[in-house]
## 1
Amino acid sequence: MHAFEYVAPHSVDDAVTLLQESGDAQVLSGGTDLIPQMKEGRRRPPLVVDVKHIPELNELVYDPVEGLWLGAAVPCHRIVGNGAIARAYPGLVEAISLIGGIQIQGRATVGGNLCNASPAADSIPALIAHRAVCHIAGPKGPRTVPVEDFCTAPGETVLEPGELLVKIHVPAPPPNHGGAYQRFIPRNEMDIAVVGAGAALVLDERGQVIQQARIALGAVAPRPLFVEEAGAFLAGKPVSEEVLEEAARLAREAARPITDMRGTAAQRKHLSHVLTRRVLIQAVQRARGEEAGRRNGHV
Amino acid sequence: MRAVGSSIPRVDAVDKVTGLAPYPGDIDLPGQAWMKIVFAGVPHARITRLDVSRAQAAPGVIAVFTAADVPVNEYGLIMPDQPVLCGPGSTPQAQIVRWEGDHVALVVAETQAQAEAAAKLVAMEYEELPVVTDPFQALEPDAPLLHPEEFPFPYGQRDRRSNLLLAYRLRRGDVEAAFAQADVIVEAEYRTQAAEHAYLQPEAGLAYVREDGRIEVIVAGQWMHEDRAQIAHALGLPEEQIVVRYPAIGGAFGGREDMSVQIVLALAAWKTGRPVKTVWSREESIIGHHKRHPFVIKAKWGATREGKIVAAQMDVTSDAGAYAYTSTKVLGNATLMCLGPYEIPNVHVDARTVYTNNCPSGAFRGFGAPQGHFAAEGQVNKLAAALGMDPVEIRRRNALREGSILATGSVVPAGCTALDVLEEAARRAAESPPEPPVTLRTSLDASRRRVAQGRGLALSFKNVGFSLGFPEHCHAWVEIHGEAEMERAVVGCVGADVGQGAHTVFAQFAADALGLPVEKVELRVEDTDVTGSSGSSSASRMTFMAGNAILGAAQRALQAWEDEERPARAEFVFHPRPTTPYDPQTGASDPNITYGYCAQVADVEVDLETGHVLVKRLISVNDVGKAVNPQQVEGQIEGAVAQSVGWTLLENFVQENGRAVTQRLSTYLIPGVADVVEEIVPVILELPDPQGPLGARGMAEMPFIPTAPAIAAALHDAIGVWFDELPITPERVWQALRERQP
């Protein structure tokens, strides 16, 4: 690895100042993406700003009214290990639980997963489905960006020079809310998604009519893909196999995958359909409180 | 309690779990320098100029070595067709790069970082040569030639105007006449892929000049004395000038049978006078060592209505890659193994291995038997389906038994237990019918509603020890200490413990023969000075060979003890019964010393929407003759099955135009713990091999072999599709399901 400067500021302001002054500094959170990239010489930042000592970035607070505040430097294991959060957002937590393996979970952060901006990132479709919003600090002051607008291209985000992702806010789940995330990989663990699908929806009191729904896909476009039309189609419709199937078909239509080593475009289109249907079924079951078996995606 | 037959803890267990056991990469020597090997990075080219001046001038650089610095610039386990370093200033053949992983320069520097930085400054000028990567195209008359030059070829005359490395044939009876009388004939083309060993420890090692003036190479390999011979040959030194030492070895599976860093470390240490160390990255390991052979096998088999197999015609082609490595030996095995463990009266096999610009192919657990059996067992299962016959019954009617004549015309060695493993597998399978699909396994399962289940069976055999006339032997000595009573014993035998537990087995045999507790047996296993060659830790041979050698030495030492020698010391060289090479026209031979037998039953579940395959249960019945350490035997069975499930369902070493595409473990997918079969049922049979030490047979490759055809048969049972190409990925299953739909 090359020689570089390392600073660990204790406040958001200090971090922003450092990032602004350096220009090509890299933010270090869990480091599970950045450190391998630096070891292989793919990134050679002159300055590494370690944000793990900044209190706001370590906040993990869930309130049934306010929702979830998820600091950008909170490692996955803290989220996955939090029973209240897992009960409130099973679809989000199962996405987070699929990132890397057990050891990686101890370091990797959702904030890092977002800022790395991989089209196949597991947490992002689930965050989009759950209406999450990014809270950003920067030289021009704070701003907020919906997660679906945060990534702009593979490895690229809306962050301007000097800007820092501080935390992510996920609204409180309304009554009769259900969410799910699934990904397809050829093996059963520790792999990059061939396709990932996240869904969250709200049913009426009787659990029969879909009031609102959001669906997002991973690994089928240059950035995580918010399939707004599929969710909009479901809004106001009674739950049935046919409407879930139609939403899944819309997700398949929206997917614009490429062929690469992990899968062909045709397979990814097909999996977009299958996974969307499956996460919708699971989300409905959860909204009705009738899900059997496990909650998250781990064995 | 006798030492042989008990699951004593491994002699290396504590050191390995506590991290004390030194692997080559863990070892440092005072004053050591670091070496970086520069790979060619092009698959076929003539190097016109190699400019190392900038690298030589870089900070910390001690020396840069090129082809001109290698005394005898050739090496190879079977034939010396590979330059140690490619480039000008050496032999004509060394000017040509034939593989992207060819070595072109060695940069030795004070630190690892300096060696790596300077290696990037080596400038190679070259003329590109046409690349051939398909073995069938490589056999075309106008194909680019990889090896037009002369080198010592151990199989008679080689046509230097062809990329054909070697061809074998087997002829028995009259297949045409037999096909004319067969009631059913099945034909298929089987394809298997290149595969990476993915052992835990990438290549690493050190070399230094000892105080006695000899060069010591500390490395992880499979056969110390062969490493020593190849190092000595390339350096133009007598073998006595070289010492090869194996510390702990992090897996091998055949992948360390050929040279990687051995020769170049010795060269660098010798030329610089400094201890020199090198450690490959995972990517260098994946690019830089050989792979399992891809095979294409065209098969046509016929049987009578009664299920008697009457004819087998096989056309077998393997991609040898750029250099011979063990391709001719793997071909020798595949030529016989593609017929499975069956007595077939009419046989016609044409087999060949062909040079291409791909990564060299070589030894990998099973050594041609997995590829051969994928075809043979696929054919038997298809015949059973065509006849409407139970897959066990058709095998019962054709399997080798005592006195059976092989296609080579020789009698199968005594102790043939193909039917025993078959019947036990059938019995175990009948006892445990497939379970309904209730287990949740992946993130997909919770909402997975459309699944199909199936069960499949396969039977296999595999030679123990080197084949076809190879002069097999193994050295050992035993030294008994004490006065009136035996106090302890020392055993010298340098067979490599590549992680399979060989050293524990050595101690168990010695303790058993001498009547001592295992703790009283001290092992001398460390280097080539201890004793003569033990042969390779491959071909499932080490327990068989070293066991016989140690028992022989122990008996003689006991005699010396009786004769009041103190310490009582004796040596023994075990020579198994000789084998003979294939007759070039007919394949007539006595090909192998003996065989091990394995039958497996696989239960699979297929996700009908995604094509994802889950192996729920795998029953593996292995006749091991005598389980020297039953726990280790079970470990070998479970490890082999896990590895074979990877080969069957996931792993694929992809190359494009002679360049590795899957260079990392993030793109070359090996099974994770969640991918290993949910329930592996290891079943050990102990039907003695009359030639084995206390009856033991080799066993470590055998449970790899039937897994792929058993899973393929289970998939056919589940969804009615035959998969004849590996790996059977979800995408291929999904495509097959899509094509099956109206």
Note: The two ends of chain B are 64 Å apart (CA to CA).
## 2
Amino acid sequence: MSQIYEAIRSFWLPEQASTTAHVIDAPFMFILIASTIMLIGVTFYLFYLPWKYRRRSSADVPYPVKENHLLEMSWIVIPTILVFIVFFWGFKAHVDTVVAPADAYEVNVQGKKWLWQFNYNEGITTTNELVVPANRPVKLIMNSVDVLHSFYVPEFRIKHDVLPNRYSTVWFEAVRADTFQILCTEYCGTGHSVMGAKVIALGAQEWNEWVASGGGKGIQPGDSPVELGEALYTKNVCNTCHSIDGSAKVGPSFLGYWGETRNFVDGGSAVMDEDYTRESILYPAAHIVEGYQPVMPSYQGQLSDGEVYALIQYIKSINGADVPATFAEGGFGGDGDAGGADAADDAAADAPAAE
Amino acid sequence: MASSTATVAAPAHDAHGHDDHHGHDHPPHLKHYFVTSEQQFEAAKLGMWLFLVTEILLFGGMFVAYGIFRAWYPELFAEASTQLDTVMGATNTLVLLLSSFTVAYAIRGAQTDNQKVLFWNLVATVVLAGVFMVIKYFEYTHKFDLGIFPGAAFNPTSDVVNPTEGIFAHPRAGVFFSIYYVMTGIHGFHVLIGMVAISILAWKARQGKYTSAWYTPVENVGLYWHVVDIIWIFLFPLMYLI
Amino acid sequence: MATAVKTPPSLRPQTHQPAEHADRAAFPPGHEPRFHYLIEDSKDDHHNYGKPKSFGRHVWEWMTSVDHKRIGIMYLVAISTFFALGGILALLVRTELAMLGDTIMDADTYNRVFTMHGVVMVFLFIVPSIPASLGNIIMPIQLGAKDVAFPKLNLASFYLYVAGAFLAILSLRTGGVDTGWTFYTPYSAETGTAVIAMGMGVFVAGFASILTGINFIVTIHKMRAPGLTWNRMPLFCWGLYATSIVQVLATPVIGITMLLLVLERTLSIGIFDPALGGDPVLFQHFFWFYSHPAVYIMILPAFGVISELVTTFSRQKVYGYTAIALSSVAIALLGFLVWGHHMFTSGQSIVSSIVFSMITFLIGIPSGIKIFNWIATMYRGSVWLVTPMLYAISFLFLFTIGGLTGIMVGALAVDIHLHDTYFVVAHFHYVMMGGTVIAMLGGLFYWWPKFTGKLYHEGMGVASAVLVFIGFNMTFFIQFVMGSQGMPRRYADYPDLPWLEPLHQFSTIGSYVLGLGLLLVLFNGIWSLFKGKPAPGNPWGGASLEWTHTTSPPDPHNFSRTPLVTHGPYDYYTVFNGAGDGAMGDGMGDGANRPAPVPVITEGAPQEFDKQIDLGTKQA
Ligand code: HEA
Ligand code: HEA
Ligand code: CUA
Ligand SMILES: [Cu+2]
């Protein structure tokens, strides 16, 4: 019996990966099963009655049927009882799951077109990766910098709109260390369907290590900047706005402009070199390229020097420019301040030119 | 098919539009799809009432918005309302009330077949409505002079209003005035429509179109005018006084 | 005054025989001159009837006609056009989703396409659909009236609708709108697309809807034929009555909402835009205060149609007439108190969510009463499975699914998971497409002979019903599964959920099958106009006035004499067994109205039946 139930549940619903998922699934399953039974009943009569009382002669005029009050009462009373059960169950399940435990670990979430930024108390900032400890309640305090978004993790059965003028919260406790999908479920424009992100739930030890490493941003001198840059290109969602095949998306393509003169909306211009590119990543609002909107978020505080360096090398490599094989070769001795984004703030201003 | 029937057409359909009571010479205002004058009159009146319900709901939506913003920024609304000219507002209230009376008398005139009363009261109503609009015009232009525009154009920068202190320093000061302009603006639009409608009535009354036997348009426009008046009766205290 | 009739209209005897029938007798059977509304305009001077007219004259007469049937047909053409447009946009949506990545368009185009699909379907198609077309054509006849109460207003409302549609289409010229049909702020206040034109379009079309509503309420109150008491009114009219109440009470609010949105964009008045001190959630409250009741504007007329279909084709009195009539009104009124169920995740307070959820469930009860009563109507009936009845049975099945899944999303905790996923998309297509559209198709087939005077092709009709049923379920049932598995709506692509691709493909194929079925419907209609047999007055053996008291197509003034109603609309036994009016104990019978024998269509001389009905109901 419970196996059949489980089979039905997993046909309809994703895996239950949070401690509250089963509370929400229970009323879902109840309504599903009750509805199915009701639908089968209705369908039976929709076949049976037209067949049983099919017209045999065009002159048939059956005698009127007397109404049966018992029958009528039953189809008022039974549904009434059912909807009350459903109402109480649905409302109780909501009340039981909506309030976060007091000891929850808090993360600040910002939705913006079209990415998620997560700010941790430890001073770490991540984009599109929400790294959390498994088996510990996590509370998200969310707001939006532009339009409405909505934070949805199907496996956790949580969803809440993210608003520009107030904070909203959701909470969850992942039941195991794994990666889960975050989706945006409030329409927010062009990139609405690619505003996905991941929850990465870590075991206790990995979590501690991740926090200690300031978000795991260590770069070794032997690493390849282009490889890292390529990874960052998708991880930091540059790809939602910048293509690498020359086609314009929300922002200009990374292909085709290296070394070219870029014209700005304010009439100025600059050659696209390392300095200009760094500035574009860290202070995008400083110069807006002609033909584009000032929508690019700043990555200041999120990308370490080494990461910015890696991205620049990656952009160069797309354009066929010479790039160093390793950080060391490029004269960049690795991430001096692996301490993370917080420290990178000031360092960014006078970062090594790395040429 | 049509041509083959031409010969019989005329007699065959003589019954149309006359129905059971053909033979009566029925009055010119009675549409053929109604059976009696009462039916037609009641239909028109019910239709008008329903229309007025939709008008009230239209303004109802705006009153709700007003209420919500007032709840959010009570001190702003209380203080900003002092910027409105209560004397002009009160005068306008009286003017509209008076016009409600004149329109009621016009209807009375129609009912008693007193064409003079009917006509001159309609004219008086239009004039009073005109007075209302003129006063409104002065209120608006005075505000525009001070830079109090609706929405983004809101820019109170004259010597009289100081944008750095008092109510104009409130970051949401523009919202109150936006709501003020939207609500009084839409109300004013209704007054204008009323003026046009009543002018047409007066013109037709002049030709003796309305008698105690049939004055449905006068009655219905009168109802409309009362509703326009009532809405102002709510707007005035909400905007100007509290 | 000469017209101050003293006898109440309901008691006036009907004695004389109109002259026209005598004249007609002079023609060979089947060649009687016919004065019907498709040829003659109700405005025409009676003495012009039958005079030949130029084509241009016909067109002009149609465009300026105040005849409710002609206006209804103009509405029908306009509405079908928008349904086809919305449907083609839907097929584009489905085609894009069939494969991962940009299949036929990019994300911006997709957003415009699904928005246009939603707006066209909701504001230009489904809100006016049944009331403005079938309602306009049939309701006054069912009431025994010559026209609606305000025929000119009726025409004005049609042109307002056209103007609104024109504005909405105009927005395409300036790049379309990409906000979704819900126009949520602040996105709609800042997107670069043509929200103003679209907002005004919705505003103007809303005005048309209000005027239709007022017109119908007054017509139902004041224009009923003598003897047609409230409890003898056909259920289609009850459905339209409830709908009209909602139209009148809810539509002004969408009007003001759209107006404020337009002002927000033009003047930045700051009511909805948080950047200026406004509140986007306030916009949602305003929007849903209209748009939830609007879903009952969409479904209540469909309920009315289904009531007619089920009883006529079971030739059995509707089971629980009063319950069905009053439950419509109950649904209409309760529908005003549940709008917050669209906003469970928006940040409204938990208490309001709980109240909204509670009232939402209450609506399930009157809806259930209807479903069960319709099913019970078939009990011991004589069920005739022709095309309209097949659509009616499809409706009962599909709407039950749609309604029960409405209960699912109405449950607070469950909706947290399901909100804004394809589960909701599937829910509302089951109620709107599977409910309203299927009912409208059934109604079209049912009344087609009446208002075109032609019989459609039965075989093609059945085939279309089957194709539509299969295609529809293929398209949308799978979307329930996708949705509860987490597929969000309004997604141009689903790179994060690649394993859903085959399910999307299945749905897409279903939508093509559905489109094929609908094409067949269209083809059937066109075919019948040219090749269809002439329809008898009462091809189905219906017992309401449009079947028993007038020809197909009806006279420009509907009836040659105002009918005197002596029994309920579904007293088949009375009507066809000639059992006399007293048999049903309604006390109104005077014997004068003894009905015709069973006028069921068979092969052969439909004209015979036509004559029987015409004369049969009028014999002294
Ligand atoms: C024709 C239109 C129509 C109709 C009739 C309905 C009918 C109902 N709808 Fe639906 N709905 C929409 C059109 C419609 N809806 C649309 C367009 C949306 C989405 C808008 C958007 O976001 O774009 C929507 C969204 C929507 C939501 C929001 C979901 C979300 O966004 O998260 C909810 C939540 O409560 C809901 C509930 C209901 C309910 C309870 C009914 C009830 O009226 C159903 C009642 C019927 C039955 C229950 C079935 C028959 C009854 C029985 C067989 C008896 C037994 C029953 C019981 C014991 C309960 N609807
Ligand atoms: C009346 C309402 C209605 C109807 C009938 C339909 C019909 C259909 N809808 Fe629509 N839909 C909506 C209202 C409706 N929809 C709304 C309100 C939304 C939400 C928009 C938003 O999010 O903002 C939506 C969204 C929506 C989506 C989700 C998009 C997204 O979230 O990304 C999808 C996807 O599959 C879809 C598909 C379809 C399909 C395949 C049909 C099919 O049923 C269409 C079938 C029709 C045809 C194929 C046309 C063929 C006809 C002819 C060729 C002529 C025949 C003419 C006559 C018979 C007169 N619709
Ligand atoms: Cu962000 Cu959708
Ligand atoms: Cu709803």
Note: Chains A and B do not touch (no CB pair under 8 Å).
